[in-house]
Amino acid sequence: MTEPGGPPPAVPPKVPPNIPPKPDREPEEGPDDMYHLLGRRIITEDVLDEVFADDDEDDAEVSERSYRRRILHGVVLTLLLALLVAAVLAALAVARGDLQIPGWGPRTTAPVTCPSATYEYPANDSFVLNVYNSTTEGGLPRQAAEALAERGYKIGEVSSRQIIYYGITAVVVSGKKGEANALNLQRNIADTEYVADGREDDSVDVILGSRYEELVPAKKVNKKPGTPSCPRLESQNAQASAAAAR
Questions:
Q1: Average model confidence (pLDDT) across the chain
Q2: Is residue 91 domain-shared with residue 130, that is, in the same domain?
Q3: Both 57 and 161 in a single domain?
Q4: What number of other Cβ atoms are within 10 A of residue 183's Cβ?
Q5: By C-alpha distance, which of 202, 216, 217, 212 is closest to 141?
Q6: Are residues 86 and 163 located together in one domain of the fold?
Q7: Strand 128-133 relative to strand 204-208: parallel, antiparallel, unpaired?
Q8: HSE of 124 in the Cβ direction (CA atoms, 13 Å)?
Q9: Residues 141, 228: one domain?
Q10: Is 209 contained in some domain?
């Protein structure tokens, strides 16, 4: 009951029968540390250093490699430039004659001459004779080798070989020791050209040409002393002498 004239007693609000009562809940705990605010994590400078520390080290390594590469390129270019300058200076020195380098000068060749010594006619069986064919006629060197063997020559190799002489009966080749033997063979094959090479033995090569047909008859072979014959070389020398006389 209330006193007369006092405020009316408070009437509790009516709760609808279908709404359950609000349960009592304890307040949720806040963040574990001071770096969370309103449910979001605060990024600090220390965190950034931890994340990007390795990237900075990688950038430093890349910069160092790039620097070394530039230094290497510079050294290589400097060496190439120095070599180029040295080559140009050397070429100028050689051109002026101030510098002599073996093999840079004009190549000098010994003059081609025909033997001038007089030799006795040697025996046919005193040396080895190689027979070669420079033509397209098959069997030619074998036929010639057989004919020469019948005259007592010791036949060595029988094969093919190219020559720079055209329209000739044969080319006879020997070294210094075989000059007399070359004379012998030239007396048995008419109209041959003698050519010297650097061999050290006394063997002789005969290279048959397009005009070869047969040997000089044995009874007509000249066996008197003489020198090897060089018709083309003698002709060239005669033409040169005639031109000089003009």
A1: 78
A2: no
A3: no
A4: 26
A5: 212
A6: no
A7: parallel
A8: 18
A9: yes
A10: yes
Enclosing domain of residue 130? 124-237
Instruction: Please report, for the chain, how many H helices and E strands are present, in that order.
Output: 4, 7
Q: Would 139 be classed as within a structural domain?
A: yes
Residue 59 reports pLDDT greater than 80: no
Most confident of 27-31, 66-70, 194-198: 194-198
Q: Which tokens go with 113? A: 């001459």
Gap between the Cα atoms of 106 and 95, Å rounded:
12
Has residue 115 been placed in a domain? no
Alpha-helix runs per DSSP H in the chain: 45-96, 140-150, 179-188, 231-245
Instruction: Point out the least confidently predicted range of 64-68, 92-96, 219-223.
Output: 92-96
Taking only the tens place, the pLDDT of each residue in 183-236 is 999 999 999 999 999 999 999 999 999 899 999 999 999 999 999 999 877 555
The gap from C-alpha 137 to its chain's centroid, in whole angstroms, comes to 39
pLDDT at 71 (0 to 100): 87
Q: Examine the domain organization and report whether 44 and 146 are in the same domain.
A: no
| Length of the chain as a residue count | 246
CB atoms within 10 A of CB 140: 18
Would you state the structure tokens that stand for residue 203, as one six-digit string? 């063997």
Biggest CA-to-CA distance, the chain: 188
The CATH number that applies at residue 146 is 3.30.70
Classify residue 160: in a domain, yes or no: yes
CA separation for the pair 85, 146 (Å, rounded): 66
Task: Give the pTM.
Answer: 0.53
